[in-house]
Amino acid sequence: MNLTEKLLVAHAMSSGAVIAVLAVAFGLVYRSLQIFHIALGAGFVVSAYMFYVAVSLFHLPVELGACLAIVVGCILGCGMEKGVYRAFYVKRSSAGIVMVASLGLYVVITNAVGLIFGNGPVSIRRELSPPLGLWGLEITVLQAWQLGLCLVTLLVCGIARMFSKVPNALWAMGENPELLEVLRHPILKYRAVVLGLSGGLSAIPACLIMYDTGLHPYSGMTYVFSAATAVFFAGAERLFGWIIVAFALSTLQSLVIWRFSARWGEVVLYVALVVVLLFRRDGIFASSKRAEES
Amino acid sequence: MRTVVASYFRRLLLRRSIKRAGLLLLFILALALIAYSPLYSFRLINLLCIYTLLLCSLNLVVGLGGLLTFNQAIYYGIGAYAYALARYGLGNPTDTGQVILSGRMGFLSATVVGIACAMTGATALGAVILRFRKDQLILVTVVTQCLFVVLMRNISKVTRGADGIYNIPRPSIFGWSVVHPGEYTLLFLVAVSSALGLLWILYRSPFGLALKSLRDDERAAASLGIRGNRTYLWALALSGGCAGLAGSLYAAYVTFIDPSVFSIDESVLLVMLLLIGGVGTFRGPLLGAMVCVLLPELCRQIGLPNAQAANLRQIIYGALLIALMYWRPQGLAGNFRIR
């Protein structure tokens, strides 16, 4: 591999890991609560700005700032459930109505952030990240952190999904919430846990991106739709599929940037999603269903 | 029985008289505003016309068809770009001195080109997006909307990329040059009221009823011989045509367009305004357009700086949207709840 290829692979890996964590955060809510959680973008932005405030304005250590941002992300997620989504759940509102309410929530929170911090992008002043020769790749320390942290997060999610009861119950909530209610599972608590977990998960890439390139208050939507793309592309049922697709799409995007131009990176992503959905409605990793199941 | 009927008619008359009084009051207020500050009020009316047309056209798909889509700004943009290119020609004569295709069409023919291109674009896009429903439809429409903006930015030989197309010639119709905002208002009122008249007829026609039946139960409608995809495709084409007209009028009025005007934010704003105003009726989009045009002016009157006023306006839209989805999911003056 020449230097460009090494740099592109490193970029694809680190950005793929970031999108994979976001996809898990989005997919968890979409799979368990059947909510198209656009407000996740708002949680993402608030966590990122919390990190910015802690590190840039209060000069706290980066690790402490990140922990603070994750806590704020969790609290905001729970707050969204208790303040908005629960009311719609109790009222048995349709998925479309909840999605529109989520859009409203996103607009309110991001504009509140814009009102406080201004509509322009903000970034954290830091030293240039030094290169690190890892597995023969030209990867920077920051990219290594991105990759490492996200991989650990994904690993924890995967292990919890496979071996713990609560994540399984959260997963099952997407299938039949009424049955869980009958089995005396605390559905309302589970809902708060799912949204809190999703908020906390989204805070990790938020901090990493804020530290790397900076963000503006309205960038949350783009990241949420990238995550949603990975979830729909893979199929809403497959947690490991979301992760694989996030890495694959990121690699594809890097390849296009390398071979053609950075201008066409997004185009390939969008076209790929539409083409895949046209031919495999339930995603590429979805198992085939009988007609009466769909 | 007679008392019941009499009380019903009394209530109906009362309701109608309240409506008439409201409309009269609005008309008097509009006249007073025009007399007080003509230029300012003409500007407001022009914006109101454009947004009314956009929201009414979106209502055809979302309100009557029941398809929540986030790509109305694509058709709006296609109309504006097609109009601008038909009036101006391809390429960038100011930079390179070279015009790839000299359009130099008149206002009317350029508007027709704008409408036709938007209709074609909507039909082509419809062939793809109509294969999806619900969440997938939302995601695919968002994705196509983002794709449109990226394409408009990147095909810079045609669209001049992020710089946009400026100095678009002002309309001239049979020797009447439209320059003053009041003249624009006259032109817009004629164009928009004709389009709204067409939409009014469509809302009440068998085609509108077919769309409503598809919205309520696609399978039942199919059993009555209504062809879902074909009807939806027509709805999208007509909606795209109206949005294309709005785009042409916008380009003719502002004389400058760039991809940021037709971004996902614009599509989201349109959907939000429609849902606030009301879905499925004719007065819902009108109300949404009034909220869109009058709320910024109210924010400005408070004395907030422009950037903060824009944020505050969006916060109000968002909060209103959440409250309405909880208490009145069909919007202020609508009759259909999003599913």
Structural class of chain B: mainly alpha
The percentage of residues in β strands of chain B lies in under 5%
> Which segments of chain B are poorly predicted (pLDDT under 50) over 5 or more consecutive residues?
95-100
Count of DSSP strands of chain A: 2
Helix content of chain A: over 70%
- Calculate the mean pLDDT score of chain A and round it: 86
Choose one word for the global shape of chain A.
globular
Low-confidence stretches of chain A at least 5 residues in length (pLDDT < 50)? none
Question: What's the arrangement of strands in the largest beta sheet of chain A?
Answer: 1-2
Indicate the structural class of chain A. Answer: mainly alpha
What string gives the helices and strands of chain B in order?
A: HHHHHHHEEEHHHHEHHH
Largest sheet features of chain B: 2 strands, antiparallel
Major sheet: arrangement of strands of chain B:
1-4
Number of helices of chain A: 11
Q: In percent, how much strand structure appears in the residues of chain A?
A: under 5%
Radius of gyration of chain B: 21 Å
Which chain pair has the greatest contact?
Answer: A-B, 44 and 44 residues
The quaternary organization reads as heterodimer
C-alpha end-to-end distance of chain A: 46 Å
| Radius of gyration from the alpha-carbon trace of chain A, in angstroms | 19 Å
SSE order of chain A in H/E notation?
HHHHEEHHHHHHH
